[in-house]
Amino acid sequence: MKKPAYGLNDAPRRWFNVVDAQLRQCGCVPTRGDRCTYVLYSKKDRIAAAKLSKNITFDSGTFDSAALDQLLDPFTGNNSKGFKPCGVICLHVDDLFMVGNSEFENTVIAHLKSKFQIGSEDRNDVTFVGQRIQWKGKPKAPGSFIKVDQKLAIDELREVSFDKHLTDNVVCNPSMHTEYRSVLGQINWLQSRTQYHCCYKFSRCASQQAAPTIGDCRALNKLVRMIKAQPVFLAFHPLKGANRIVGFPDASYKNNEDKSSQRALTIFLAETRSQYDGETSSRGSLVEYESHKITATTMSTTVAELYSLMKCFGTMLYLKGLWADLSGEDAELHLRTDANNLVTTAKTTHQPEQKETIHLIQMLRRESNSGSIDDLAHVISQYCLSDALTKHSAKPDELIKAVETGVLQQVDLHPPFRSLLKHKAFLCQWLCNTLPTTNHPRAIRPQNLITFLGEHIWEEMQSVLYSSSGRR
Predict the structure, then answer these.
(1) 36 shares its domain with 138
(2) What is the mean pLDDT of the chain?
(3) 205: pLDDT confidence band, cut at 50, 70 and 90?
(4) Do 320 and 259 sit in the same domain of this protein?
(5) pTM of the predicted model, to two decimals?
């Protein structure tokens, strides 16, 4: 056969190669984080300087983009190369979801229409891989947002059928076991896409799928009724200016029925931190969430919280690289946790008493003090938006409210983490005494120093210089 037929194992790959070639032909570039997501960059419009990645400076001056690419930095060396994105395409077999401006429509969409026969085309209210995506309100109008729901799939949910007189400890027979896994698979599709409020209860039901009992079937049916009675949706709100990625990790130590520990995370794409005093809230949209049983050995709550925080940080790094390709921005990473001991420990050089936490604590200190974590702060459990995904007792009301309104309460209650680091004044004093005072044109003067090893010290440096001149 010269062409792949539907149903053969090489058909999906051959079809992908055809679509991939046509998208690349019209200028689309696949992202490095997701091979089925393509971006079209403008050939003339550049990104504002405020949104670009931080420049790397050295004695010889500023590195260009080619040098940054050689350094293999996934954020500063992104595919945009300083040009604005015109549009994005998400590909799933023969379903394409696209967003873009007029340049994208005239370049990409027109090319695809000339090469393929389009079965159906919708705008502003579309169904993509089982999800309905629609604009609520007029696009760009105040209060408008993008709504994503799976109402049709929720309506199709059915409970596991069994004899109600059986006791909870009776093991399911093979047919009931198959039905249990079938219902669990339907809920898995929902909780991983839009039904974020039920992912903890799903995780607990999924841990019993190897040998479920009648009690597990009752718990799964209760979850089905909860989803059908209280369905939620994802809302993506317009965000102004350069964006940041805000993560809320959380963990519960031996709070599950089987005495296991649970970790969870919620990650928001949010507006940059407000510069106005007293402004503690921010606007953002939920872009990632999960709830999983901790399989590693955790001997205390601190270890569980540390494990959850580093898992959340790793996910945020992935999203940062993906967002760098989609927007050309180098987004800051802000972490918010209700474990205050982690925040205070990251700011000190105290030796941990628990030996199993030393490695994780050193990783946290390295990432937070080097600048990989741009901000780290404590929030109370009420506003730690992943708290409801780790235990039965926590209610998801605050998380649902944050998603639907786009307002993250108390997210910026504390000053920036790096402004609270100790010995910063000593660092500025040391630089003033160490840097040469010569008038050579290539010499770095203390009063011109803005950052040192990724640490923003311009304000503290001016204060030290002013106080030194006053004493003299």
Answers:
(1) no
(2) 85
(3) very high
(4) yes
(5) 0.84
